[in-house]
Amino acid sequence: MASARLGCVDGRAVFITTSLTGYIDIEKVSGGKLSSDPMACLENWVEVCKVATNLSQADESSAIALDANKLECPVPRPRQIFAIGINYKAHAAEMNNPLPTQPLVFTKFQSSLNSPNGAVTLVGEKCDFEAELVAIIAKGGRNISASEAWGHVAGLCVGQDVSDRALQYANTPPQFSLGKSRAGFTPIGPWITDAASLTTRGNLEMTCRVSGEIMQHTQTDDMIFEIPEIISYLSSICELFPGDVIYTGTPSGVGAGRTPQRFLRAGDVIETTIQDLGTLINKCI
């Protein structure tokens, strides 16, 4: 297996095969050396990657066929979920915001986590879509330098930061965390891909479609603050822990920034794809 892809099926940590069509139970293939708990695997990421690298063709050939609908959130119990606002130049422009001089941080709550293909229950008439690149921490710490930050990252995955704009802007100042933390508003997945194996990690293509129509399309090099800068900034204030989730911001094209505005409707299907990381498919109900 060229690189580790950590998924979750039936509550158990699994490797996703190179073909992306099967999965291998991590605890079983490691002979009990690694845990079946995805969170424990993130704490032991170096060993997870070693086991993945040493998997044989026979191991992959004996994999269980993957049903994407059975994939669960690959990071089910993070201590902290951080998110960065206004972190793409084009998004700042569409929202008529100046470029920030330091990362704009809010949080999302664990109770909002959703699976890669889970349904999103809309509340009200102003729920919006936000495609995001997500970083998952393996090695925690404080005061992590930008030059060392990638060494603290387990992997990258795809995220949707579904947002209830009515709730978000119900008061002054805005309630970002509440507006983005309704049940099911934080789909993550479809798996976590080892960041060290991604030669493209600094410039990934990202696309969001709503019911087949492309709404967002960008390269992640449009970020204002890249992942190492974000980790350095966050860790200068908060201690980071294995399994922490960092949503790194959304590009231009969100529904609230369009003329006329385009919010999610029941029956819409949100497809969020990032190069080399996979696709989330979330139906709105």
Structure description:
Pfam families: FAA_hydrolase. This protein is of the alpha+beta class and 285 residues long. Helices cover 16% and strands 29% of the residues. It has 2 domains: 66 residues, no CATH class; 203 residues, Fumarylacetoacetate hydrolase, domain 2, CATH 3.90.850. A hairpin with a 3-residue loop joins strand 16 and strand 17. The mean pLDDT is 97.
Structural topology:
Elements: E1 5-9, E2 12-16, E3 22-25, H1 26-29, H2 38-43, H3 45-53, H4 57-61, E4 64-65, E5 81-85, H5 89-94, E6 104-107, E7 113-114, E8 127-128, E9 131-137, E10 153-160, E11 163-164, H6 165-168, H7 176-179, E12 186-194, E13 205-210, E14 213-219, H8 227-235, E15 245-247, E16 269-274, E17 278-283
Parallel strand pairs: 5-15, 7-12
Antiparallel strand pairs: 1-2, 1-12, 2-3, 3-4, 5-6, 8-11, 9-10, 9-15, 10-12, 13-14, 13-16, 16-17
Task: Identify the notable features of this structure and list them briefly.
11-stranded mixed beta sheet; alpha+beta; 16% helix; Fumarylacetoacetate hydrolase, domain 2; globular; 285 residues; metal-binding; 8 helices; 4-stranded antiparallel beta sheet; 2 domains
